[in-house]
Amino acid sequence: MRWHTLWSFILLLLFSSATYLTYLVSRAGGLNPILINDVMQSDLSTLGPTAFLLDIFVFGLIIRWAVNRRRRKALETSKPPIFVPPMIALPPPEPSIDQSSTQRIWEEMAMLNEHENL
């Protein structure tokens, strides 16, 4: 079981407990712990083992729904195959510049530099 599944179960249990406590407070008419305890004891005595069976049934349905959803999601989100593009044929490199053209480029740059300094 993953930690977020356990965490969501704990939060669901906390939420249902808070809802029940809110119901008891509104039925008892206040936050007096003795009155709330008496109301809670009377609820447990009237419901008896039926309350525990109801809890098991409800949580069983929730767990079944979560497992079915996870299975369906796992089937839907299968990863597509990785696309590997074919190799691209590159042109051969240009032939190296000979010494004379290199000398001519340097002379042109020197001339441009002289004109800029004027």
Description:
There is one protein chain. The chain has helices at residues 3-28, 33-47, 49-76, 99-117. With 118 residues, it is mainly α. The longest helix is centred in the middle third of the chain and has 28 residues, at 49-76. The radius of gyration is 39 Å and the shape is elongated. The model has no long low-confidence stretch (mean pLDDT 82).
Quaternary structure classification: single chain
What is the H/E string? HHHH
According to DSSP, the number of beta strands is: 0
Distance between the termini: 80 Å
Class derived from helix and strand content: mainly alpha
Poorly predicted regions are: none
Mean pLDDT: 82
Radius of gyration: 39 Å
> What would the principal axes of the Cα set say about the shape?
elongated
* Proportion in helices: over 70%
Question: Beta-sheet strand percentage?
Answer: under 5%
Q: How many separate helices?
A: 4
Biggest β-sheet description? none
Describe the secondary structure blueprint for this structure.
Layout: H1 3-28, H2 33-47, H3 49-76, H4 99-117
Helix pairs in contact: 1-2
Structure summarized in a few sentences:
The protein is mostly helical and 118 residues long. The protein has 4 helices and no strands. Helices cover 75% and strands 0% of the residues.
Main attributes of the structure:
mainly alpha, 118 residues
